[in-house]
């Protein structure tokens, strides 16, 4: 207070400062003495592997979690955040990692939720509300009708609505947790431009992302978390991509560069999987796909291209109107999971926690779930052989778990994915269908999963189909890459021909 | 647009019309009379008030199994203050309703703040109230209320309308306004739809959850006073013995409310109550005894939900599963039913 406003060169205090924050959950020290701050007019990126504590830190700032130790200061004044509501009132705006919406309300009502006056409607928007919502949606780059029911919207659309919500009345501190993870490249691009503009207006922005290239483009400062600790805060100029990757990785863990096994079998082998002209408007408009034993076929597509729908159609989750799926010479009727499974096709779905594992069951129980599991005799569970099966998979798949009896939901994303993969293999599949297998997991685990997929495809001779919107994951993994766009396969390229730019070029509508 | 939005209501209207026609044809001299219509309105009005209350608990994402006992308990407390503490009638009524709301408030606190499952909370509350209701007057029921109480809440008429349906109508109007025009109404729906979203939106979730259960308890108390006024005798288990707990949930669900929250319209509740009342009265007049009636009511409840799910397209797997399972079920049924031609 002794400093006069004029001529002062003393820097303003941080817009938000988290000082010495610790937070533990049963069995896990999620945050250990983490200090992090963000100033007005800067974008401060928060990086780290899955389970490093990024989302926990954001949730502490959001008032969602009360820290065990440490203090929070806004503009230099210590505060206690009692609830999310409290954080909002103090000018903290957070876009959480989860996609959240009230399905029965219109998208417009969802965007305005919490900003209404005492008198409001549940149904249609008033004209002024409609204008407000249209403005907010426009700012986030979305162009859909705000009167549509949230329950009928796709995940990327809901994400855009969530961003629009946050940018409707943004506070001085804005934190975004993995906002671009489910967005198409063009929508992500638009968001980054928006954030740079908000920064230039003097907002303090915290940005959490796995996409390092984005972070390096827009951030002024970068903080890396590892195992709940802050391992360093750097100015943008001080670090490059390799340095960040090295910081994020645990020092004792070696990253395999690639699987040094046999190459792909010749594509001339008779295909195990033949999907012909699969049509289920509007998502699939005549898609054809073949995969031979031991080969890895990639399907690249942005959100909404139908690459996930094609996998689900083959696996029997979604019915289709016309077309034919043949697995190992046997035609499979549309929409029958059971028939597809019996023919030998197993899907590992993208929604890991909800569909690929049972979080509240042990790793062992998850692994022996398949109907065809060899760990049972006459339908009776044999604990000893289940344990042996689980130990075998834990070893061969490199699952990092305290024991066979640990809850699968307590593992990190990458290890959950390994459990899901192992369970698929316990079904002795002929065709394995992987939907976004490396989504939302850290760089090292991604590499591990890629190697695992390669090794299993080659050694077990399984026809493997990988559908993903993270194109870089397919380069160096798939033997051939198909690109989908708006329900059709629009391009096919060999592993040698494929480049990121080439895939993207075909994938964008 | 209108037809698809209000499909549940249209189907219920059709169902009510068909039932009405059938019972009228079967028993024109008793069922198809003005007196019977008034009688049905009198019975239905009480259930309507309780079911509308139940709708608050359902929409916010839970349910309240304690409404039936709360009806009897609140009425007992009203009678206790009226007859034993000699409080004037108006004040005894206010106290009774306040106690019912208080029961709802405690339910809401246990469910929302302490995060106890609604099933356990309200079941526990119902059991506890059945015990607590013994103390005001032992096991002796209260009776001999002033005539104005019976007339104004149970058996009289307001103009051309039986008083219970008039009160039901007023409650429906207020609750409709509440849900259609107030922020609180929107938030109760939104919390039922996605509690997490509401927390992130800075909605004071706990406050509105407690409000929903409190209003549910309040309306249960109003229904309890109406029931007490109608039958002239008040005991803790009057509502419980008449099955208002399950009936209130059943009518709301038949009317399109979703267990789990976020969905439900007051028009559906009104028609659900109408359907159940017409069905029960018709069966009564036909001389169908209580046990088959219960079987029919249970079947209608499950059937209505099945039908709604079928329409919503959630049962796409059914047609494939149906042929074999239906054939098996039919064969099993046939073996149970003696062949009439043989005798």
Question: Which tags fit this structure?
Answer:
heterodimer; A: alpha/beta; Rossmann fold; 2 domains; six-stranded mixed β-sheet; 25% strand; B: 343 residues; mainly alpha; ABC transporter involved in vitamin B12 uptake, BtuC; two-stranded antiparallel ribbon; 16 helices; 75% helix; 2% strand; disordered C terminus
Walkthrough of the structure:
The complex is a heterodimer of chains A (509) and B (343). With 509 residues, chain A is α/β, with parallel strands linked by helices. Chain A folds into two domains: 16-248, Rossmann fold; 271-507, P-loop containing nucleotide triphosphate hydrolases (Rossmann fold), CATH 3.40.50. Chain A is 31% helix and 25% strand. Chain A has 16 helices and 22 strands. In chain A, the strands form five sheets. Chain A has a six-stranded mixed β-sheet with strand order 6-7-8-3-9-10, sandwiched between helices. A six-stranded mixed β-sheet of chain A has the order 16-19-20-13-21-22, with helices on both faces. In chain A, β11 (271-280) and β12 (284-292) form a beta hairpin. In chain A, α4 crosses α5 (155-168). Chain A is globular, with a radius of gyration of 24 Å. With 343 residues, chain B is mainly alpha-helical. Chain B has one domain (2-288): ABC transporter involved in vitamin B12 uptake, BtuC (Orthogonal Bundle), CATH 1.10.3470. Chain B contains 16 helices and four strands. Chain B has helices at 2-5, 7-26, 34-59, 67-84, 89-113, 118-132, 147-155, 163-181, 183-193, 195-200, 205-231, 238-241, 244-254, 266-285, 290-311, 318-336, and strands at 142-143, 157-158, 161-162, 233-234. In chain B, the strands form two sheets. Chain B has a two-stranded antiparallel sheet with strand order 1-4. In chain B, α4 runs antiparallel to α5 (89-113), α5 (89-113) packs antiparallel against α6 and α9 crosses α11. Chain B is globular. The chains are: A alpha/beta (509), B mainly alpha (343). Chain A binds chain B through residues 62, 64, 84-85, 87-89, 94, 96, 98, 100-105, 109-110, 113-114, 116-123, 165, 319, 335-336, and chain B through 179-183, 185-186, 189-190, 193-194, 196-204, 262-263, 316, 320.
